[in-house]
Amino acid sequence: MTSIAQTPITGLDLTGFTEREPGSWTDEAGLVLSVHFFPLVPDLPAPLHEPERLRYGCAEGTAEAGGGLVEATVGTVDGLPALCQLLKMPLQSRPGQAFIGSWTLPKDRCSTVVKVQAAEGATTGLREAVVMNQVGPADYFKPHPYAGGGQFGGLPYHVADLEQWDAQFPDHPLTLVRAALHRITPTITLHDQFKTLPPFTGPTPSPAPTAAPPAPRRGWSRRKGV
Predict the structure, then answer these.
(1) Which residues on adjacent β-strands are paired with residue 113?
(2) What's the whole-model pTM score?
(3) Closest CA to 86 of 104, 100, 66
(4) CATH number for the domain whose boundaries are 9-194
């Protein structure tokens, strides 16, 4: 099997996307699709079989970076357990937000990530304003579902980001990212060698300094045909 951009991914529906550089594609709506392989222990805050701790840690980390975690769910990609995240981050160069959807497929010593992202254009805040007007200010902001009844810092959690509003805003970047992720996910296939690697069992404790990990090899595997 031939891998895509030196990752364990062997298949991915790229309909409508044009390659921008190896492992990165764009479409006419402004979506950016990318694939990644990280030869390091995944930086997830908890293993996938502890979803509450995992979601809390992901939401906390996103907030500390100035953003907001919209949702996080544990599912499967080509039969492998994986984490799906949808988050928003403030744009650095102008007002507005970027929305990022991703699947992380963690293994014991590495991970593969498929990511879709899009940013707001000249018009910002329209979805939020319309939804607030429809539900009322009292029902607009909600406690973050992963914060145990409270809120994290970063961008606030509110109901305008929920999927139920996507149909009303078909061109919004959040809608586009969520739809692209839904469409692409069932088409992802992975190399058998990656699928049989030991599973991710949780973050590595912070021990005394150790030797640096070996430099990444060319490609992601020594096996021929990858």
Answers:
(1) 36, 104
(2) 0.89
(3) 100
(4) 3.40.1000
